[in-house]
Specification:
Distance between the termini: 22 Å
Number of helices: 2
CATH topology of the largest domain: Chitinase A, domain 3
Strand content: 25-35%
CATH architecture of the largest domain: Roll
Number of domains: 2
Order of helices and strands: EEEHEEEEEEH
Low-confidence stretches: none
Bound molecules: zinc ion
Number of strands: 9
Mean pLDDT: 89
Largest sheet: 5 strands, antiparallel
Shape: elongated
Protein backbone atom coordinates (compact mmCIF):
# COMPACT_ATOMS: atom_id res chain seq x y z
CA UNK A 1 0.00 0.00 0.00
CA UNK A 2 1.33 3.45 -0.80
CA UNK A 3 2.04 5.63 2.21
CA UNK A 4 1.73 9.33 2.89
CA UNK A 5 5.11 10.59 4.03
CA UNK A 6 6.01 14.00 5.45
CA UNK A 7 9.61 15.14 5.59
CA UNK A 8 11.92 18.08 5.95
CA UNK A 9 14.72 18.50 3.48
CA UNK A 10 17.60 20.59 2.30
CA UNK A 11 18.54 20.27 -1.35
CA UNK A 12 22.09 20.93 -2.52
CA UNK A 13 23.89 20.82 -5.84
CA UNK A 14 27.19 18.90 -6.23
CA UNK A 15 29.07 22.02 -5.15
CA UNK A 16 27.23 22.09 -1.84
CA UNK A 17 25.16 25.15 -2.70
CA UNK A 18 21.71 25.12 -1.10
CA UNK A 19 19.09 25.14 -3.87
CA UNK A 20 16.02 24.70 -1.73
CA UNK A 21 15.03 23.82 1.81
CA UNK A 22 11.91 23.29 3.88
CA UNK A 23 13.67 24.74 6.94
CA UNK A 24 11.58 27.48 8.48
CA UNK A 25 8.43 26.21 6.81
CA UNK A 26 6.08 23.27 6.98
CA UNK A 27 7.38 19.81 6.10
CA UNK A 28 6.50 18.45 2.68
CA UNK A 29 3.79 15.79 2.43
CA UNK A 30 3.46 13.46 -0.51
CA UNK A 31 1.71 10.29 -1.59
CA UNK A 32 4.20 7.62 -2.62
CA UNK A 33 4.34 6.92 -6.33
CA UNK A 34 2.04 9.82 -7.23
CA UNK A 35 4.68 12.04 -8.78
CA UNK A 36 4.43 14.67 -6.05
CA UNK A 37 8.20 14.59 -5.54
CA UNK A 38 10.87 13.56 -8.01
CA UNK A 39 10.89 9.84 -8.78
CA UNK A 40 14.44 9.19 -7.64
CA UNK A 41 13.76 10.57 -4.17
CA UNK A 42 10.39 8.84 -3.86
CA UNK A 43 12.05 5.50 -4.67
CA UNK A 44 14.81 5.96 -2.10
CA UNK A 45 12.42 6.79 0.74
CA UNK A 46 10.08 3.81 0.31
CA UNK A 47 11.28 2.01 3.43
CA UNK A 48 12.07 5.07 5.57
CA UNK A 49 10.27 5.39 8.90
CA UNK A 50 9.54 8.44 11.06
CA UNK A 51 12.70 9.84 12.59
CA UNK A 52 14.96 8.60 9.80
CA UNK A 53 17.65 11.05 8.76
CA UNK A 54 19.28 10.22 5.50
CA UNK A 55 21.17 11.70 2.59
CA UNK A 56 19.91 10.80 -0.86
CA UNK A 57 21.74 11.70 -4.03
CA UNK A 58 19.57 11.57 -7.12
CA UNK A 59 21.40 11.59 -10.45
CA UNK A 60 20.19 14.22 -12.89
CA UNK A 61 18.61 11.58 -15.13
CA UNK A 62 16.24 10.59 -12.29
CA UNK A 63 15.63 14.15 -11.17
CA UNK A 64 15.00 16.87 -13.77
CA UNK A 65 16.67 15.00 -16.63
CA UNK A 66 19.83 15.54 -18.56
CA UNK A 67 20.39 18.78 -20.38
CA UNK A 68 19.10 18.63 -23.94
CA UNK A 69 21.11 20.66 -26.45
CA UNK A 70 18.03 20.78 -28.70
CA UNK A 71 16.39 22.97 -26.05
CA UNK A 72 18.87 25.74 -26.80
CA UNK A 73 17.49 28.15 -29.35
CA UNK A 74 18.80 31.35 -30.85
CA UNK A 75 16.19 34.04 -31.48
CA UNK A 76 16.16 37.68 -32.48
CA UNK A 77 16.06 39.97 -29.50
CA UNK A 78 13.23 41.95 -31.08
CA UNK A 79 11.00 38.86 -30.89
CA UNK A 80 11.26 38.64 -27.12
CA UNK A 81 8.50 40.02 -24.92
CA UNK A 82 11.04 41.95 -22.88
CA UNK A 83 11.33 45.69 -22.50
CA UNK A 84 14.56 47.30 -21.41
CA UNK A 85 17.75 45.58 -20.42
CA UNK A 86 18.27 41.87 -20.99
CA UNK A 87 20.86 40.01 -18.93
CA UNK A 88 22.30 36.53 -18.96
CA UNK A 89 20.36 34.48 -16.43
CA UNK A 90 17.09 36.36 -16.95
CA UNK A 91 14.11 34.03 -17.02
CA UNK A 92 10.72 34.54 -18.54
CA UNK A 93 7.73 32.54 -19.69
CA UNK A 94 7.19 31.79 -23.34
CA UNK A 95 3.42 32.03 -23.23
CA UNK A 96 0.54 33.83 -21.59
CA UNK A 97 -0.22 31.55 -18.64
CA UNK A 98 1.71 30.31 -15.65
CA UNK A 99 2.08 26.83 -17.12
CA UNK A 100 4.01 28.07 -20.12
CA UNK A 101 7.61 26.88 -20.24
CA UNK A 102 10.23 29.07 -18.62
CA UNK A 103 13.33 29.90 -20.63
CA UNK A 104 16.62 31.30 -19.42
CA UNK A 105 18.83 33.73 -21.30
CA UNK A 106 22.06 31.78 -21.83
CA UNK A 107 23.95 34.23 -24.06
CA UNK A 108 23.51 37.54 -25.84
CA UNK A 109 25.35 38.10 -29.11
CA UNK A 110 24.41 41.40 -30.69
CA UNK A 111 20.81 41.10 -31.85
CA UNK A 112 20.77 37.37 -31.19
CA UNK A 113 19.74 35.90 -27.88
CA UNK A 114 20.43 32.29 -26.98
CA UNK A 115 17.54 30.90 -24.96
CA UNK A 116 17.75 27.75 -22.85
CA UNK A 117 14.46 25.93 -22.33
CA UNK A 118 15.99 23.19 -20.19
CA UNK A 119 14.73 23.05 -16.62
CA UNK A 120 17.12 25.10 -14.48
CA UNK A 121 18.04 21.90 -12.61
CA UNK A 122 18.44 19.71 -15.73
CA UNK A 123 21.82 18.04 -15.73
CA UNK A 124 22.32 18.66 -12.02
CA UNK A 125 22.81 15.78 -9.59
CA UNK A 126 20.74 16.59 -6.54
CA UNK A 127 21.62 15.77 -2.94
CA UNK A 128 18.81 15.80 -0.41
CA UNK A 129 19.36 15.75 3.34
CA UNK A 130 16.06 14.35 4.50
CA UNK A 131 14.43 13.90 7.89
CA UNK A 132 11.25 11.84 7.87
CA UNK A 133 8.62 13.45 10.09
CA UNK A 134 5.86 10.90 9.68
CA UNK A 135 4.79 8.00 7.50
CA UNK A 136 1.37 6.36 7.46
CA UNK A 137 -0.82 4.40 5.11
CA UNK A 138 -2.64 6.52 2.58
CA UNK A 139 -6.40 6.81 2.93
CA UNK A 140 -8.77 5.65 0.20
CA UNK A 141 -9.58 9.29 -0.52
CA UNK A 142 -5.92 10.17 -0.95
CA UNK A 143 -5.42 7.23 -3.27
CA UNK A 144 -8.40 8.29 -5.38
CA UNK A 145 -7.18 11.90 -5.53
CA UNK A 146 -3.58 10.93 -6.17
CA UNK A 147 -2.06 13.18 -3.50
CA UNK A 148 -1.59 13.63 0.23
CA UNK A 149 -4.18 15.26 2.47
CA UNK A 150 -4.36 16.88 5.85
CA UNK A 151 -2.21 17.07 8.92
CA UNK A 152 -1.56 20.79 8.49
CA UNK A 153 1.25 20.08 6.10
CA UNK A 154 -0.71 18.32 3.39
CA UNK A 155 -1.23 19.65 -0.06
CA UNK A 156 -4.96 20.27 0.14
CA UNK A 157 -6.22 19.73 3.72
CA UNK A 158 -9.32 18.00 4.98
CA UNK A 159 -12.46 18.78 3.05
CA UNK A 160 -10.25 18.79 0.02
CA UNK A 161 -11.89 20.76 -2.74
CA UNK A 162 -9.59 19.54 -5.43
CA UNK A 163 -12.10 17.18 -7.02
ZN1 LIG B 1 -7.44 15.87 -2.64
Amino acid sequence: MPRVVTFNYTLRDPGGRVLDTSAGGEPIAYLEGAGQIIDGLDAELRSAVAGTKTRVTVPAAKAYGERDPAQMQKVKRSLLPVDGELSIGDQFQTGPDRFSPVVTVAAIEGDDVLLDANHPLAGVDLTFDVEIVSAREATAEELSHGHAHGGGEGSCGSGCGCH
